[in-house]
Specification:
single chain; mainly alpha; Glycosyltransferase; 3-stranded antiparallel beta sheet; disordered C terminus
Length: 435
């Protein structure tokens, strides 16, 4: 899907974006916030003046690039563990912070945890428009941070390190149990009165019922915990976690797969066919065989019909699956064709391209070519009037320049495929040893 020269360009750009996203100790990046006083380097979601804090998910989604040192990884992992919530708390808005919850983002000046989107204020966090509990994905990304650090550094001793009397490994298990689960199918599930954001890349969207993307994250986290158990020599627990993951995988297909070959985002509000969940599920190997092929055909068709992509970036929902003429998702805090409600994002581009590539006469290479060409034209290294990679854009607007996951996630997928070091669908799957 990508030439060596284009992959080399993407690698260099990804490294440049990550370098621009670092906040060094005592560095001040915004006049509105103090310097980094957390004791180590932080990596924020992007460069320049955007996002003056440490966001867990953006970092966790990027750590697999191998472009962060072990020392940096360890600092951000332990900072996140230190800010894990240990006792059920209520906010002044009536929302709750469950035991085991992980911060949405962490302030750089004082290291305090902000569990909800939309604010940098400890006292004013928890407005219910962002949900009645924190985003549900960060607990799983915390597990991914720990897994990646151990896999890359081979430092198993960190799992036994105590944080306020609880070992890091026990904190991973505590996080795993901090989200609401449907007892019937073991999928992540919420209703209107305990709603939490299913995935931070759509925190302005209201989604209820059994949740697909969060459940995919749970599936991955269970496999990662299983592998940590195996590395620790706990074979019984390893098999138990693998079994739990296998059941969640079966239920994801049973509950969310629809007749078009796509996975629905949920079973409640905003239950539209979900491009990101579908493509990532194919890449994880959750959807495979005929199911993956049907999804591939649907996305190729949508690409040709101009319902999916623009300038190499992709929508969350196909245009033909928009809830109405007024909104892409059924529930949204933002207008149609803006931000997470119909704008185009590059974070999911390579997941989509891989899914498309399974079909004969696939247009996957066209999508990747458009993605790379757009990055070359707008490369932020050309000067301040350039900003690519952007967080998202439409044909009339674009926002947040030098955005990390817009290149770091596609790079991880494409380098895996190009290197042929493992089977394509094994991206983020678990190896059986630390060797």
């Amino acid at each position: 899907m990508v030439s060596k020269s284009d992959l080399d360009f993407l690698k260099e750009l990804t490294q440049a974006v990550i370098d621009s996203s670092r906040i060094l100790p005592n560095q001040r990046i915004s006049p509105d916030f103090g310097p980094n006083q957390t004791g180590g380097t932080l990596i924020r979601p992007g460069g320049r003046s955007s996002y003056p804090a440490f966001w867990i998910r953006d970092y966790a989604m990027s750590v697999g690039t191998g472009m962060m040192s072990w020392e940096e990884q360890k600092h951000m992992l332990m900072l996140t563990a230190t800010t894990q919530n240990d006792v059920l708390r209520k906010t002044k808005f009536g929302s709750i912070i469950p035991r085991g919850a992980i911060a949405d983002h962490i302030r750089i000046d004082d290291g305090q945890a902000i569990y909800f989107p939309g604010t940098y204020s400890v006292e004013n966090q928890g407005e219910t428009r962002w949900g009645y509990q924190p985003p549900l994905d960060d607990v799983f990304y915390f597990i991914q941070m720990a897994y990646e650090y151990v896999k890359q550094s081979k430092d198993l001793t960190i799992l036994d390190q105590p944080i306020r009397g609880i070992s890091l490994f026990q904190r991973l298990l505590l996080a795993l149990e901090a989200v609401p689960i449907n007892p019937v199918n073991q999928l992540v599930s919420v209703h209107e009165k305990n709603r939490g954001v299913d995935f931070g890349f759509r925190d302005a969207i209201h989604i209820t019922g059994d949740l697909c993307f969060s459940s995919l994250l749970r599936y991955q986290a269970l496999l990662q915990i299983a592998e940590l158990y195996q590395w620790k020599g706990n074979r019984v627990e390893f098999r138990q976690m693998q079994s739990r993951a296998g059941y969640v995988k079966q239920q994801i297909i049973r509950v969310f797969l629809n007749s078009t070959g796509m996975l629905k985002a949920s079973t409640g509000k905003s239950a539209q066919s979900d491009v990101w969940s579908t493509a990532w599920a194919v890449y994880l190997g959750v959807l495979h065989g005929k199911d993956a092929m049907k999804a591939s055909q649907r996305l190729n068709s949508a690409y040709l019909d101009k319902e999916l992509a623009y300038r190499g970036a992709v929508r969350h929902v196909l245009k033909s699956d928009d809830f109405s003429e007024k909104t892409a998702w059924e529930g949204s805090l933002v207008k149609k064709d803006t931000y997470q409600n119909g704008a185009y994002w590059s974070t999911a581009t390579a997941w989509v391209a891989y899914t498309m590539s399974l079909s004969p006469n696939s247009k996957a290479k066209h999508l990747i070519d458009e993605f790379i060409q757009d990055l070359k034209q707008g490369d932020f290294r050309k000067g301040m009037e350039f900003g690519a990679p952007w967080e998202c854009f439409t044909d009339t607007s674009q926002q947040n320049p030098v955005y990390m996951t817009s290149v770091s996630v596609p790079y991880q997928v494409l380098i895996d495929l190009a290197s042929k070091a493992q089977k394509p669908t094994s991206h983020r799957r678990i190896k059986n040893s630390l060797n």
